[in-house]
Every structure is written in structure tokens, then in C-alpha cells.
């Protein structure tokens, strides 16, 4: 029996220039490093925590 995983579409809307290093590292861990780049990621507690750390730099939608 397969479990269907929800996905999130995360788009980078802000620049990490002038931000703390951990925010740049968090964007890279989400697969983002340029403005308007979009990634579809699995909705897990770990990824939700990453998104929360950089919520002012990304836009999140259900995929």
C-alpha cells in the first residue's frame, strides 16, 4: 500500500545578500540559490522547518 506524499512548490523571492550565512545555507538545502527559482519538495516536518527559517525569502504553494 503506497502512501501519497504531499508536495510543496517553493519559489525564492528574496535575495540572501546581506543576510546571515545560515539563511543562505538553508536556501541551498532547499535547492534554491537564485531569484525566481522554483523547486517542488516533499512536505515533511524537516522541510517545513527549513521554510520557516527563510519564510521572508520564499513563496510556498501546494503542488
From TrEMBL:
GO terms for molecular function: structural constituent of ribosome. Residues 1-22 are annotated as: Disordered. Residues 8-58 form the Large ribosomal subunit protein uL30-like ferredoxin-like fold domain. One of its GO terms (cellular component) is cytosolic large ribosomal subunit. Keywords: Ribonucleoprotein, Ribosomal protein. Part of the 50S ribosomal subunit. Belongs to the universal ribosomal protein uL30 family. NCBIfam families: rpmD_bact. This is Large ribosomal subunit protein uL30. It comes from Arboricoccus pini. The lineage of its organism: Bacteria, Pseudomonadati, Pseudomonadota, Alphaproteobacteria, Geminicoccales. The gene is rpmD.
Amino acid at each position: 500500500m503506497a502512501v501519497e506524499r504531499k508536495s510543496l512548490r517553493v519559489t525564492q523571492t528574496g535575495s540572501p545578500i546581506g543576510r546571515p550565512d545560515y539563511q543562505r545555507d538553508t536556501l541551498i538545502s532547499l535547492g534554491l540559490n537564485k531569484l525566481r527559482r522554483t523547486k517542488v519538495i516533499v512536505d515533511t516536518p524537516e522541510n517545513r522547518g527549513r521554510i520557516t527559517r527563510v519564510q521572508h525569502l520564499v513563496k510556498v504553494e501546494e503542488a
